[in-house]
Amino acid sequence: MLYQSTRDNAVKVSAARAITQGISKDGGLFVPESIPSLSAEELRALVSADYVQRATCVLGKFLTDFTADEVAECAQMAYASGRFRSAAVAPLHELEDGVYVLELWHGPTCAFKDMALQILPHLMRVSAGKTSDGKEIVILVATSGDTGKAALEGFRDAPNTKILVFYPENGVSAMQKLQMATQEGENVGVCAIRGNFDDAQSGVKTIFTSKEMGNVLAENGKMFSSANSINWGRLVPQIVYYVSAYCDLLRDGKLKMGDPINVSVPTGNFGDILAAYYAKQMGVPIAKLICASNRNRVLTDFINTGVYDRNREFFTTTSPSMDILISSNLERLLYDLCDRDDTAVSQMMAALATEGKYMVPATVKEKISSLFAAACCDDAQTAETIKTVYDKHGYLCDTHTAVGVYAYEQYRAETGDTTPTVIASTANPYKFPASVLGALCDDDAADEFTKAERLHALTGTEIPAPLSGLQGKTPRFTEVCDKEDMRRVVLRSLGIGE
Ligand SMILES: *Cc1c(COP(=O)(O)O)cnc(C)c1O
């Protein structure tokens, strides 16, 4: 199977090349030529399988230039080497009859980004062995909080690899900042930028696609790659947990083969929900994809109107990992829904770059409406949802998950659709102790760790060791740069020039 660029169908590369390169030179994203299918037979066989076997099956269908052993070994190293605190890796929690929370935060950094970033370094190593002629790989990451830490943890001390993370100085939670600033490892770097996530993401994309930077790196025996969800190697492992959730529901007798489910996904860069869309294309009986946004509701408006318009106020919210106005992965969906019309996608992306706005054709709008529903949730509604879910079900969820729950409830109230629903739970509540505790009670605790202790005392839920272990650690990375200076920071951290 080859991969095409969303902006130029003539570009065709192997999976290994798509993964090491991260993004196409034309600025487009790599997508598989076609979506492989998962038959009912194959799905049935996965019901009694464990997460590693499920991952091996799904990944193998996309990474056809990997040997079966290579795929299996990557899945094994990622999901069975004790880095996840749950043997199930991504367990389902039943909130009430027909409503399930898919817990994606049992990995080392307590957010769903680990699901992909624990395996990406292995996929990258195998891919580099096939394509990169021994060049050192330099991973640049823009993060709204969770990707950065998960990528640092995944790639720390990976051979022949360096990683540099940029995050918005005032756009992440205190816990997220501390997680990144205290990162250990010889090959890692972290820098805050004066700007928001979109600034960090466009800065990184510009560096990636700059010919001049590419040449400078090549002269120094290095090449760039990406650990953001623009990298296909990030998306494909995310398809697995939707397949896995369906298998678990079959296994537990909650569904019969072929019964539909809806999914509700708290969305920022559109990676997680796009993976659910691909799972649906593969054959998992997913009916509606509910796209949940916070106050930065650019996707809610897009899905409801067909007009994507980023010219609006940017809000920092209590769900910071979704504070995004330019959702990169939407490009992949548009490419698919425009029947792979690379010219149409290029035009829309050019309009987004110059005017901050584009409109999809009516036919595409219709497809979007039949596939997706959308709802948004402000900070007050998020806090209320955390409290109601806790009071009603005794289940503590984080701010992002609460947005997903709220959107599901809105959708259900508006449509009366009672299809069993899987809500993606994207972070552990202790990553955001201030907002979560504040939702449950009045609280005047001075710092994050006291808040976490109070939350623990109040609810009896466990503080994950990777978070409690941060207390008292001295930050190692404290640099802040202007967004115009990212290029210089990259070169300096690589020991090149200037
Ligand atoms: C990244 C993130 C999201 C958004 O996921 P996308 O794939 O960017 O849509 C939601 N919640 C949490 C906790 C995250 O870290």
Entry keywords:
47% helix; Rossmann fold; 2 domains; 498 residues; six-stranded mixed beta sheet; binds pyridoxal-5'-phosphate; alpha/beta; five-stranded parallel beta sheet; 16% strand
Strand content: 15-25%
* Ligand catalogue: pyridoxal-5'-phosphate
Sheet with the most strands: spatial strand order: 4-5-15-10-11-14
CATH class of the largest domain: Alpha Beta
Give me the CATH architecture of the largest domain, please: 3-Layer(aba) Sandwich
Which of globular, elongated, flat, extended, rod-shaped describes the shape? globular
Unreliable parts = none
CATH topology of the largest domain: Rossmann fold
Tell me the layout of helices and strands.
Layout: E1 3-5, E2 8-13, H1 15-21, E3 30-32, H2 40-47, H3 51-62, H4 68-79, E4 92-96, E5 99-103, H5 113-117, H6 120-131, E6 136-142, H7 146-155, E7 161-168, H8 174-181, E8 188-194, H9 197-209, H10 211-219, E9 222-226, H11 232-251, E10 261-266, H12 271-282, E11 286-293, H13 298-305, E12 307-309, H14 330-337, H15 342-355, E13 357-359, H16 362-371, E14 372-376, H17 379-393, H18 399-415, E15 421-425, H19 433-440, H20 448-459, H21 465-468, E16 480-482, H22 486-493
Helix pairs in contact: 1-6, 2-11, 3-4, 3-11, 11-12, 17-18, 17-19, 19-20
Residues 111, 113, 146, 229, 266-272, 321-322, 400, 426-427 line the site of pyridoxal-5'-phosphate.
Question: Any overview of this molecule?
Answer:
The chain is α/β, with parallel strands linked by helices and 498 residues long. The protein folds into two domains: 3-79 and 114-232 and 477-493, 3-Layer(aba) Sandwich (Rossmann fold); 92-112 and 233-431, Rossmann fold (3-Layer(aba) Sandwich), CATH 3.40.50. 47% of the residues lie in helices and 16% in strands. The chain has helices at 15-21, 40-47, 51-62, 68-79, 113-117, 120-131, 146-155, 174-181, 197-209, 211-219, 232-251, 271-282, 298-305, 330-337, 342-355, 362-371, 379-393, 399-415, 433-440, 448-459, 465-468, 486-493, and strands spanning 3-5, 8-13, 30-32, 92-96, 99-103, 136-142, 161-168, 188-194, 222-226, 261-266, 286-293, 307-309, 357-359, 372-376, 421-425, 480-482. The strands form four sheets. It has a six-stranded mixed beta sheet with strand order 4-5-15-10-11-14, with helices on both faces. Helix 12 (271-282) links the parallel strand 10 and strand 11. The radius of gyration is 21 Å and the shape is globular. The two termini are 42 Å apart. The model has no long low-confidence stretch (mean pLDDT 96). The site of pyridoxal-5'-phosphate (PLP) has 16 residues, from helix 12.
